[in-house]
Amino acid sequence: MSIAILHAPTPPDSVETWLAELRGPSLLWLPGPEELPARALSVLLHGNEPSGINALHRYLQEGRTPARRAMCFIGAVEAARTLPPSRVVAGRNDLNRCFVQPPDDANGALASELLDLLRRADPEALIDVHNNSGHNPAYGVLVDTRPASLALVEFFTARAVLNQLHLGTLIEAQVDRCPSVVIECGQAGAPQADEVAYRGLCAYLEAEELPAAPTQAVQVYRNSVRFELAAGVSLAFVRAGQSRSTSLALRADLEAFNFQCVPRGEVLGWCEGESLPLIARDQSGDDRASDYLYVEAGTLCAKREFTPIMMSTRPEVVINDCLCYLVDEHPL
Ligand SMILES: [Zn+2]
After folding, report:
1. Confidence of residue 1 (pLDDT cuts 50, 70, 90)
2. Contact 179/125 with Cβ under 8 angstroms?
3. Interhelix angle 51-61/191-206, nearest 10 degrees
4. Ligand 1 center to 299 CA (angstroms)
5. Residue 37: which region, alpha, beta or left (left: phi > 0; alpha: psi -120 to 50)?
6. How far is the CA of 87 from the centre of ligand 1 (A)?
């Protein structure tokens, strides 16, 4: 058993002290009516995405009362304790890629254990709180578009992305059991992102009944492809006029395009050779990069309009995860 089970703790004053005191991954139970279903919350599946744990800490400090029993999972405690906090402990699999087919390592075992606890508790909903590493507005991530899932998103934001890629996330593993969504609160460390998380968490935990449908339209985008670095490509982000020493240099201001349209012909960066330095992986795993990008005389350009989200301009994030996802508006 690697998950510590805790009941209604009052945390110390600071999140840092709290993290230092936790033994490791923990499940906090907040009390509520025993005869009614619990609600599940997950925070810190990625150690450098603090809005969820900051919101939970504030919620507990303020002594608020949830309407239902709440099971609150705090995931990557060890990764969060490193300086600076990291997404995942070095050498381990990304925890939020371990839930559908848990790998044979520490995070695979942790994922299996959490799924087991969720199966036994049988909550009526699950919300998994994350941050982006780049500038993004808050949005939900859905793996289905049932009204009850949209209603969970609406506690936090009116914008959502339908993710049709199979990544092995917690919500993919749980969604057949109860409405399950991710909330990306905005950039890690931004006070607005913490506020989005806190307000949404209060609304979710304190709703007398979970709404069966959202009260207003939630704009849903459909995730089409995921841009990753091609094998052997080295990457830097550069400003205009800066010298370049990597095989791919992307514009440092690209993240301003998150949830915005990149026009056809827009210069994205500069690369060596004529082959595309990025892969655009679609749902079936095929590379569609040549639909979106072309290289001309060492310049990487957009072949057609597209809308990126979750763009990060930190090379280590791009190397370990991806550059961005592309989305289309999804008719409901
Ligand atoms: Zn995350």
Report:
1. low
2. yes
3. 60
4. 31
5. beta
6. 8
Which residues are CB-neighbours of 295 under 8 A, at least 6 positions away?
271, 273, 274, 275, 276, 277, 301
Q: What is the CATH number of domain 4-217?
A: 3.40.630.10
Q: How far is the CA of 306 from the centre of ligand 1 (A)?
A: 23
pLDDT single digits (tens) 56-82:
999 999 999 999 999 999 999 999 999
Q: How many angstroms separate the alpha carbon of residue 132 from the centre of ligand 1?
A: 7
- The SS3 of residue 236 is strand
CA of 50 to the centre of ligand 1 (A): 10
| Positive or negative: CA dihedral 272, 278, 279, 282 | negative
Residues of the chain with CATH 3.40.630.10: 4-217
Residues flanking ion ligand 1, Cβ below 5 Å: 46, 49, 130
The pLDDT of residue 317 is 86
The residue whose two tokens read 């995921």 is 226
- Say if CB 95 and CB 46 are below 8 A apart: yes
- The secondary structure of 182-193 as a DSSP string is EEEEEETT-HHH
Q: Give the global pTM.
A: 0.85
Going from the Cα of 128 to the center of ligand 1, the distance in angstroms, rounded, reads 9
The CA distance from 266 to 313, in Å, is 17
- Spell out the alpha helix ranges (H) of 36-126: 51-61, 77-81, 106-121
Give the Cα-Cα-Cα angle 102, 37, 185 (nearest 5 degrees): 60
Ligand 1 centroid – CA 185 distance (Å)? 10
